[in-house]
């Protein structure tokens, strides 16, 4: 990443970028030859705002916005779970089962998948000998 390509007037870390290009960076950084003064260019956190040091309070969103956000989050979770259930259904179709009289649970599906993968691995290992 080229730090010189960024505009210094918009960054609160411009001093940090300049320090990477300055001449005060020690050339040999082995522990035996470095003093604490050599590391004077290290990063320090930005200074707090001089206008007000008290933490800002965020306004609570209106009940309508809260409800919309909750509905959107519920819809996203529903989509995620539907995708997961579809993936389990596809996995159930591929895994051989002893009886087709009941649908395997998610846990049973994962156990059967592990067993099936291990059996296929053993089969490949035996056939390569």
Tell me about this structure.
The structure is a single chain. Helix content is 49%, strand content 0%. The protein folds into 2 domains: 8-39, no CATH class; 63-124, MYOD Basic-Helix-Loop-Helix Domain, subunit B. It has 3 helices and no strands. Mean pLDDT is 77; it is low at 1-6 and 19-26. The chain is elongated. Pfam families: HLH (PF00010).
Quickly list its features.
disordered N terminus, 129 residues, single chain, MYOD Basic-Helix-Loop-Helix Domain, subunit B, mainly alpha
CATH C-level category of the largest domain: Few Secondary Structures
Order of helices and strands: HHH
Helix content: 40-55%
CATH topology of the largest domain: MYOD Basic-Helix-Loop-Helix Domain, subunit B
Number of β-strand runs: 0
Low-pLDDT parts are 1-6, 19-26
Amino- and carboxy-terminal Cα gap? 50 Å
Protein name: Cousin of atonal
GO molecular function: DNA-binding transcription factor activity, RNA polymerase II-specific; E-box binding; protein heterodimerization activity
Biased composition (Low complexity): 1-13
Organism: Aquarius paludum (Water strider)
């Amino acid at each position: 990443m080229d730090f010189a390509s960024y505009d210094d007037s918009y960054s609160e870390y411009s001093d940090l970028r300049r320090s990477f290009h300055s001449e005060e960076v020690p050339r040999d950084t082995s522990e035996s030859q470095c003093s604490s003064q050599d590391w004077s260019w290290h990063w320090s956190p930005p200074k707090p705002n001089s206008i007000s040091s008290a933490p800002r309070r965020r306004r609570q969103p209106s009940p309508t916005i809260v409800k919309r956000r909750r509905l959107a989050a519920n819809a996203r979770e529903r989509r995620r779970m539907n995708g997961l259930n579809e993936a389990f259904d596809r996995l159930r179709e591929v895994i051989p089962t002893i009886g087709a009289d009941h649908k395997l649970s998610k846990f049973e599906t994962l156990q059967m998948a592990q067993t099936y993968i291990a059996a296929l691995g053993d089969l490949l290992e035996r056939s390569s000998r």
